[in-house]
Specification:
The chain is mainly α. It has 2 domains: about 400 residues, Up-down Bundle (Growth Hormone, Chain: A), CATH 1.20.1250.20; about 50 residues. α15 packs antiparallel against α16. The longest helix has about 40 residues. The protein is globular. The chain starts with a helix and ends in a 20-residue tail after the last helix. The C terminus is likely disordered.
């Protein structure tokens, strides 16, 4: 290898660090505020009915604007969009940390979600066009998948530590130095790339898909408080389905569609989107149930709860980095994804063995290890094939599509599982009374019931992926020349 190629290789791997750092910040911010909610609510005088919007405002803006963010990255430059997203996210995080009213904090969370919608697709598309050799691509996506899978658990740990030892505001301030470091590294190491030719924004597509995703996320967010059968839930969900159906029709007829139908028609890519969505349902459902189980049933402190998730994090890293990265260039994708989904389902089913008195090592630890090993087998493969083989001009929107699957699935899945858990808990208490011991047992009963449903969804999804994702094992052929960036 010539000195020039060796230097370019080192720059790529250094750039990966800063791209992955940006992704970690995005995923971390989805959970870091959760543990701080009681302190935050108390300090700002937020009502119980309004507190959910601290989480929902972020997910609503993030999930609904992702496809638009991906197309903006393709048209205006992925490096430029990456840097704007990082700096905007840092400013929004600083605003949220300094907020002294509920309204200002809510505005900051919306801004965070909007800038994350720019940042997420641009980061993944930069990874896609930077690593084109199959062996390097496997290692790079192993890192990316591991970061995505463990980011939520790291967020819980960081949220507990920051809330216990500093203040809830640091759960927002922590993103500022991360974003600035990633922006400095990305500015120095990343080359610009964007779609060539004259770009025309698909305005009808933008309006339809953004409106449809907003309606879906909003309707889902209301289900916990209003019930799935309420007009406030069914109305937005129906509107979301209609708008997204209209979006699909429009995209087949416009000359430069926002989401080209060929991207989602590919079976391997469709299987990858489904796999990411199912994995997020399992992981975020586990984060929710285990957090409440450890704090409410077992009496753990926030920081101790965060530490309890560390073995899951280690399992993801070992699985993604030690196993999946080595096998990804050699085997068909479903050979890794289907067993991974089965392991995540087993982790959720392990909840059925737990009682209120079950020791940590026999309950949460074993469940977390199964979940971690399974997620580490799914995420690198799914993210790789979600962007594999796309034209360079579509890298941003392809990355946005898999991010959208991740975000929408985690939002809908978490609310769905929480609704199932709440219903099972209420039924148990109605049958057994309302003593403190019964309340703890009832909460566990809710988690077990929802975990069983999650396992059923995951196993059904595994069967679908086994049939749908029929991509063969990668061909071993000389690597194509790396993607040539378009000058800014």
């Amino acid at each position: 290898m010539s000195p020039t190629k060796a230097q370019a290789g080192r720059r790529r791997w250094a750039a990966l660090f800063f791209i992955a750092l940006a992704q970690l910040m995005i995923v971390l911010d989805g959970t870091v505020v959760n543990i701080a909610l009681p302190s935050l609510q108390r300090d700002l005088g937020i009502s119980d009915g309004d507190r959910q919007w601290i989480i929902t405002a972020y997910t609503l803006a993030f999930g609904s604007l992702l496809l638009l963010g991906g197309r903006i990255a393709d048209y205006t430059g992925r490096r430029r969009t990456f840097l704007i997203g990082l700096l905007g996210f840092a400013a929004a995080s600083a605003l949220g940390g300094a907020a002294d009213t509920f309204g200002l904090l809510l505005c900051a969370r919306v801004l965070q979600g909007g800038f994350a919608a720019l940042l997420g697709p641009s980061a993944l598309s930069l990874l896609t066009v930077t690593f084109t050799r199959p062996d390097e691509r496997a290692r790079a996506f192993g890192v990316w998948g591991a970061v995505t899978a463990v980011g939520g658990a790291i967020g819980l740990l960081a949220g507990g530590a920051l809330t216990d030892y500093l203040d809830w505001r640091w759960c927002l301030y922590v993103s500022v130095p991360i974003a600035l470091v990633a922006a400095a590294g990305g500015s120095a190491l990343l080359g610009e790339s964007r779609t060539g030719g004259r770009a025309r924004l698909d305005t009808p597509g933008v309006l339809l898909v953004t409106g449809g995703l907003v309606a879906l996320v909003y309707g889902t967010s209301r289900a916990e408080s209003d019930g799935w059968a309420s007009a406030g839930v069914l109305g937005p969900l129906a509107a979301g389905v209609v708008l997204l159906a209209a979006f699909a029709v429009v995209e087949r007829r416009v000359p430069q569609p926002m989401l080209p139908p060929r991207l989602v028609a590919d079976r391997a890519r469709g299987g990858a989107y489904l796999s990411v969505g199912l994995a997020m349902v399992g992981m975020f459902g586990a984060f929710l149930f285990m957090t409440y189980y450890l704090q409410v049933v077992k009496g753990y402190s926030p920081i101790r709860t965060g530490v309890a998730f560390l073995p899951m994090t280690v399992a993801v890293l070992l699985s993604a980095g030690g196993l999946t990265t080595r096998l990804l260039p050699r085997v068909a994708p479903r050979v890794l994804i289907v067993p991974g989904l089965a392991l995540v389902a087993s982790g959720m089913l392990w909840l059925r063995t737990m009682e209120t008195s079950t020791p940590y090592a026999e309950g949460v630890l074993l469940s977390g290890l199964l979940l971690g090993f399974g997620a580490g087998m799914i995420m690198p493969v799914a993210f790789n094939y979600a962007t594999h083989g796309v034209d360079p001009q579509d890298a941003g929107v392809a990355a946005a599509s898999v991010n959208t699957a991740q975000q929408i699935s985690s939002s809908i899945g978490t609310v769905l599982l929480n609704t199932i858990a709440t219903g099972a808990t209420a039924d148990y208490m109605a049958d057994h009374g309302r003593s403190p011991a019964v309340a703890r047992a009832a909460m566990l009963e809710g988690f077990v019931t929802a975990g069983t449903w999650a396992a059923g969804i995951l196993l059904t999804g595994a069967l679908i992926v086994a049939v749908l994702m029929n991509a063969p094992r990668p061909e071993h052929r000389p690597a194509k020349r790396d993607h040539k960036p378009v000058p800014a």
